[in-house]
From TrEMBL:
Keywords: Membrane, Transmembrane, Transmembrane helix. It comes from the Bacteria. The keyword Isomerase does not apply. The chain crosses the membrane at residues 17-37, 49-71. It holds the Pfam family DUF3311. InterPro entries: DUF3311. This is Membrane protein.
Length: 87
């Protein structure tokens, strides 16, 4: 086996698991409707059903940004380890 094949980076890394969790969390939260299909607790007169969904709009944005930055940081680290040959 060649030396390059032995040093190949694993496909599943802890960073990629965190990225996947950041991207999957909003889907799980929104598809589990029974967890938020109620009126109380209301926030400034807005039923829980509505403000919970709007909160997830903001959280989804933040989690997507975190996933994006982690992905690019990992890609830069891999490129520097590989000598910039692979992108």
């Amino acid at each position: 086996m060649s030396e390059a094949a032995q040093e190949k980076q694993p496909v599943v890394t802890p960073v990629r698991v965190v990225i996947a969790l950041c991207l999957i969390a909003p889907f799980v939260a929104m598809l589990w409707v029974s967890s938020y299909a109620r009126r109380d607790p209301a926030l400034i007169g807005i039923p829980f059903f509505y403000w919970y969904q709007m909160l997830w709009v903001v959280l989804s944005t933040v989690l997507t940004m975190v996933a994006y930055r982690l992905w690019h940081r990992e890609q830069r680290a891999r490129a520097s380890r590989d000598g910039g040959a692979e992108r």
